């Protein structure tokens, strides 16, 4: 028997020993948690039986208090133990079938000559019975970084106590399934092809997978980066940006356990469906999910009461389909203009001017009557000390208005409608009034009819009730008419835009189309951030000070303005931005140059950039094919996994396209693929193709912007919604010149093609897109 065979026997014996130990511990823990759970139920049920309650005198009261405290402490101690055991159980469950995936043998420089420490890495740590020796190290432990960063030879790694140097004498990888070593091999720096081949060759899933066992060196740099205030990751399609981001969250939660919690981490995703796609990774690693949201959801939350906020996909659909609209060019120019930092400066200047004049206030109206006119409020506001900021002046104004309302309420009580309202009161209200007044001795002993004071009391009650809503709205500052203030920016001769764009006919056109939308109650997507920013500047910023880490996926899709805004909203947060400028498809994010220039967001020393060139998602053939579409694509390195060449199918006419697509779908079904996407350029096209395919290839699920769950199966999806997700096979429904030929469509086309893991097929009619010619 060869050496390696002997070693494998030893290794399997160790796996057996550990899985046996893990199982024993699981059984023991299950029994104990069951017992504790029972105890907790009993303590809760008998809590008051076991407490002697007696408040007769101070000594008895003290004793009662002490006995309650003792019971409460016992309960919380039991609950703590239960929580701890449940966590341990969940770690053991994760280690049960695959206790570890890697091993390193390490000699610490400090004790050279000694035998190497043998370190096994898994998705959780395991101590021996003495509690002193690690049988398995968590992949996030400081020493584990050596596994991802080095091959055999000299190594170093950071610990809280400083840098440790040493020598790695062995690096081994395992594929262990159900407690059996399927294969094991010794490697250098790169974590072996074999393991990656196995992982990447599998079918796609409804949920993203964790990549702990095969994290690559450059990905590890992202995961463990702790220095940068702003970490910018530019990575080719399929290079593992999202995967690395999620592993990074898990790493941070481990590294800062006790200090950092999952709710202090926020991930901005490209769409709600993507949220569902990535939501299983962290629980799989034994961590809680961070807060996940989309920028659109955030905007809705902030300004959704003022306007119907257009979403980025509707804007996208417009930019892809509305070329015949006479306002098309003006709208696109407006989108570009409003996404720049210069537009934020314009808002700043506007706010400065508003400090002097121009704020608009709504009158405070009650029962159709103006109680305090907008004009009066305005005069009061501008009568306040002008050196004070607008939000602080508004606060004074609120105090003044509330006082005024108290006085006005008294006048209101005398009005006739109040009498009518009193008459309609029920008996209970009367009885209550009588009781309260008796308590206050308001009824004079001599009068037999206390009508006046009773009426006074009831009138005050009626008016107070009706004024409640008014007072609440005043407290919220709802009398400031932010929509009107924003609209004023686009009115002819708005003071602030003088010298900015006032003479340009383009600006006038942009203003007109924006105003039209705003008057309809619709907030165009490109205006949503400027509006939210203006609102915050006037009312005072609602910052999220507890958030420590903000992750933005598909970061190339955000505008400069949006970044500046986010920076202000999350003042205590580090930013991790993950994107690919080759996939910037939105009109507001330009051609991705914003993503390039982001370094200016923070100080130079606080920003770090990492570029990922290696693409893992797709076969070599697909990566090479797709890379030809974009500039600089030759730098993208495919992972060496082979598959079929992408195919081009020319249909005789547009009408024949569905048949060609159906044919490809059947072929892929035969080949056993379970998730195939027909990717269309727009939602409009997706809907049409979906209807045409239904009779000849039923069962495809149409994905729309409202779709919130990502499920396994065959789908029809618009290109821009397929961002960030992947499929076994992709069929580009229409790769004709008519669909993809404008320069703005190049990146969209690239994004669509790079969603495929194993097979890519393109259908077209007439001329093929010039991007492939
Ligand atoms: N180190 C790795 N080990 C195993 N699989 C990996 C690794 N890195 C990436 N992958 C796989 O590659 C695929 C693409 O990863 P991911 O979606 O994170 O890439 P991305 O850079 O965010 O892509 P895109 O920009 O196209 O959305 C996923 O299936 C992921 O599991």
TrEMBL record:
It comes from the Bacteria. Residues 214-619 form the UvrD-like helicase ATP-binding domain. GO terms for biological process: recombinational repair. Keywords: ATP-binding, Helicase, Hydrolase, Nucleotide-binding. SUPFAM superfamilies: P-loop containing nucleoside triphosphate hydrolases. InterPro entries: DNA_helicase_UvrD/REP, HelD_bacillota, P-loop_NTPase, UvrD-like_ATP-bd, UvrD-like_helicase_C. One of its GO terms (cellular component) is cytosol. ATP binds at residues 235-242. One of its GO terms (molecular function) is ATP binding. The keyword Hydrolase applies. NCBIfam families: HelD_BACSU (NF041464). This is Helicase. It comes from Paenibacillus pinisoli. The lineage of its organism: Bacteria, Bacillati, Bacillota, Bacilli, Bacillales.
């Amino acid at each position: 028997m060869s050496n390696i065979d002997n070693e494998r026997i030893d290794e399997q014996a160790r796996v057996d020993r550990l899985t046996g130990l893990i199982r024993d511990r699981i059984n023991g823990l299950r029994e104990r948690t069951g017992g504790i759970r029972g105890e907790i139920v009993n303590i809760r049920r008998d809590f008051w039986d076991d407490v002697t309650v007696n408040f007769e005198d101070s000594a008895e009261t003290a004793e009662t208090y002490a006995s309650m405290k003792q019971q409460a402490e016992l309960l919380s101690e039991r609950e703590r133990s239960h929580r701890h055991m449940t966590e341990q159980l969940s770690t053991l469950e994760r280690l049960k079938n695959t206790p570890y995936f890697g091993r390193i043998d390490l000699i610490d420089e400090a004790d050279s000559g000694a035998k190497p420490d043998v370190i096994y890495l898994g998705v959780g740590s395991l101590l021996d019975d003495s509690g002193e020796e690690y049988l398995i190290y968590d992949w996030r432990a400081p020493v584990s970084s050596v596994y991802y960063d080095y091959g055999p030879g000299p190594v170093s790694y950071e610990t809280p106590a400083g840098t440790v140097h040493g020598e790695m004498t062995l690096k081994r990888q395992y594929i262990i399934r159900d407690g059996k070593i399927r294969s094991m091999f010794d490697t250098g720096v790169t974590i072996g092809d074999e393991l990656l081949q196995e992982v990447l060759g599998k079918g796609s899933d409804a949920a993203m997978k964790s990549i702990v066992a095969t994290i690559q060196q450059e990905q590890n740099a992202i995961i463990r980066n702790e220095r940068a205030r702003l970490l910018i990751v530019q990575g080719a399609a399929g290079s593992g940006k999202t995967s690395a981001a999620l592993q990074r969250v898990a790493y941070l939660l481990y590294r800062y356990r006790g200090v950092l919690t999952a709710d202090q981490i926020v991930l901005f995703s490209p769409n709600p469906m993507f949220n569902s796609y990535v939501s299983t990774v962290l629980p799989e690693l034994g961590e809680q999910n961070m807060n996940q949201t989309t920028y659109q959801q955030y905007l809705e939350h902030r300004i959704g009461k003022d306007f119907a906020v257009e979403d980025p996909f509707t804007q996208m659909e417009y930019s892809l389909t509305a070329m015949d609209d006479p306002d098309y060019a003006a709208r696109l120019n407006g989108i570009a203009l409003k996404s720049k930092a210069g537009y934020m400066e314009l808002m700043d200047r506007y706010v400065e001017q508003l400090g002097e004049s121009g704020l608009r206030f709504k009158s405070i109206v009650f029962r159709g009557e103006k109680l305090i006119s907008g004009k009066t409020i305005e005069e009061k506001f501008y009568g306040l000390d002008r050196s004070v900021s607008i939000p602080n002046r508004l606060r004074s104004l609120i105090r003044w208005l509330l006082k005024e309302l108290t006085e006005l309420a008294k006048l209101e009580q005398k009005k006739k409608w109040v009498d009518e309202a009193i008459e309609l009161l029920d008996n209970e209200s009367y009885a209550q009034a009588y009781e309260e007044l008796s308590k206050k001795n308001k009824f004079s002993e001599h009068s037999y009819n206390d009508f006046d004071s009773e009426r006074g009391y009831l009138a005050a009650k009626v008016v107070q009730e009706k004024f409640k809503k008014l007072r609440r709205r005043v407290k919220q500052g709802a009398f400031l008419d932010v929509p009107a203030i924003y609209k004023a920016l686009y009115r002819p001769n708005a003071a602030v835009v003088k010298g900015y764009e006032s003479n340009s006919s383009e600006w006038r056109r942009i203003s007109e189309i924006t105003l039209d939308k705003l008057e309809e109650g619709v907030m165009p997507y490109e205006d949503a951030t400027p509006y939210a920013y203006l609102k915050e500047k006037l009312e005072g910023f609602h910052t999220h000070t507890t958030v420590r880490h903000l992750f933005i996926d598909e970061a190339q899709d955000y505008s400069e303005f949006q970044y500046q805004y986010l920076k202000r909203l999350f003042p205590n947060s580090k930013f991790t931005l993950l994107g690919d400028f080759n996939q910037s498809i939105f009109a507001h994010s330009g051609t991705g140059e914003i993503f390039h220039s982001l370094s200016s967001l923070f100080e130079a020393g606080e920003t770090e950039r990492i570029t990922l060139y290696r693409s893992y998602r797709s076969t070599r053939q697909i990566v090479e094919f797709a890379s030809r579409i974009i500039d600089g694509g030759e730098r993208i390195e495919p992972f060496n996994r082979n598959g079929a060449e992408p195919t081009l199918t020319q249909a005789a006419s547009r009408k024949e396209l569905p048949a060609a697509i159906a044919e490809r779908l059947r072929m892929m079904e035969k080949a056993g693929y379970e998730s195939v996407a027909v990717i269309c350029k727009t939602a409009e096209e997706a809907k049409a193709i979906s209807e045409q395919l239904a009779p000849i290839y039923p069962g495809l699920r149409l994905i729309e912007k409202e779709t919130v769950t990502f499920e396994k199966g065959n789908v029809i999806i618009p290109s821009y919604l397929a961002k960030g997700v992947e499929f076994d096979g992709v069929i580009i429904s229409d790769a004709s010149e008519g669909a993809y030929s404008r320069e703005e469509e190049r990146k969209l086309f690239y994004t669509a093609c790079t969603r495929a893991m194993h097979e890519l097929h393109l259908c077209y009619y007439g001329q093929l897109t010039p991007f492939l010619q």
